[in-house]
Amino acid sequence: MLICACGNRDLAIVTSWSDRNLGRQFWSCLRNERRCGWSGWFDEPMCHRSVEVIPRLIRSMNKLQESLQQATLQARMYKLIILFSWALFSTHYLKHGRSRL
Ligand SMILES: [Zn+2]
């Protein structure tokens, strides 16, 4: 069983989000809900190519998600505009009849 340098046995596996170790997991001491500062790698070191490629893929994925959110908002806005224009058209049509169109 793994024990921290401070004697604590309450260790957690945490995922790194740094560019150099993106997604790599490590042990971290959780003494009194505050970390004592100790940590040790749980996963093996990542290969050089993964360290280079994965952050780029994550950034690319984030950009795509942003684009998707913007496109979704635009689609909602266009739907509202179409609904509004049809409501306006129907109101006008009912009020003035077919001959005044
Ligand atoms: Zn500790």
UniProtKB/TrEMBL annotation:
GO molecular function annotation: zinc ion binding
Q: Can you give the residue ranges of the GRF-type domain?
A: 4-45
Q: Which InterPro entries match?
A: Znf_GRF
Name the keywords, alphabetized. Metal-binding, Zinc, Zinc-finger
Q: What is this protein called?
A: GRF-type domain-containing protein
Organism of provenance: Lactuca saligna (Willowleaf lettuce)
Read off the lineage from the record.
Eukaryota, Viridiplantae, Streptophyta, Embryophyta, Tracheophyta
